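Journal club side-thread
Mid-discussion, someone asked how the predicted structure for our own chain would compare to the paper's figures. Pasting it here so we can look after the session.
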Amino acid sequence: MQLVTASGGFHPWPHLLRGPMGRMGPLLQQPPTMTERRHDIDALRIFAFALLILYHVAMAYVAGWDFHLKSAYTTDWLQAPMIAVNRWRMPLLFMISGIAIGLARAERAPWQFAWRRCGRLLPPLLFGIFVVVAVQAYCQGVSNGKVVPGFGSFLLRYWQVRPWPAGSFDGWEHGITWNHLWYVAYLLPYTLLLMAMLALGRKLPVSLPALPTSIALPALLLAPILWGAFCLLWVMPRHPPTHALVGDWFVHAESFPLFVLGYALAHSARVWTWAVQLRWPTFIAALLAIATELSIRHLGRSLDSVQLPALLATVRWDVVERLARAAYTWLALLALLGWARHGLNRPFAWLPYCTQAVFPWYILHQSLIILALYWLAPLQLGPWLEPGLVLAATVAGCLLLHEYLIRRVRWLRPLFGMPMHDSPTRTRNAATLTQA
């Protein structure tokens, strides 16, 4: 059976569009207005950054993965959940950033928005590189035996932006590093490029909602997966990720299209309706995809090719693994967006405060993780107490520094992405996504 859609086309999967009790869901009704406050996007971004704190704490304890400072208590079992989060955490942030810009820009001229965005992102990036992230470089350098203890003298040397002894810290050859702030370093040129595209009048891929459902929905589900597979199979082997901005073609190929797609679909009522209605199918399909990837990775380590039947031994399992990875990334993004739209689009009491706090917490969190581990590692507290204290110290440090220092000292606020002046109106309107 095929369903005739409102656009006159046929929908190949009518059962996915049926609401409760067999009634048609809202897809064929009047599209909801997209001028409403998008609390779900703010809440999803807060969730993503909160998860980032847990992820970066776990980076110190997952065996076989590089990090700026590693604990003595590493373990293999963390690899599977870390991979499951790794595949969508940064794509989600870039897509949310594009959505946020699409919702926040309104009718403002592209060059005006670009100027405001530079003023919002550039001070935190520079302050983060030269002050906040310097703590990470110092702790790593001292732990590596390449830097003499004494943070004051290290900072004076660090500010000279001269190369350090090889292996001092990540980025030693440049003299400085941005570590986790690479996301901000990429977001700034992405935003400028997007605004330049708009200013030049180039059409973005916003025609998807005008297509018949029988074309638009399969395109939404499959096209990003195919692009992700191309990036993994062709771009990544030739240009492995570096997070150095210049020449980081795999990360650009993966992240910038998601950023632009988020912007283009921000006001598409039909796409958001699909995301909600397909939240269970995309969630289940994402679970199957990540199970496939993890199974192939596990069997690839534990089985020799001679143990496989002849037919299975001829399969390009590396290709299958990357196809599953591409499918998982996009399906997980759709599921997250759909579930957030379904359950988080409401004015939670904590949302305005957390929306303003999320960017300062992001800037601070990894330096606090490294600093806490640097102090706690010599105490040999064990594999449970040490990570618990690192996490507690990180959360407490972010909370105290933001609440009692950053948000109360006017000149510090812009250095952490906050407006110079706070007001009740600004606090109430925090969900307008000024931190995109």
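Post-session note: The CA atoms of residues 380 and 386 lie 8 Å apart.
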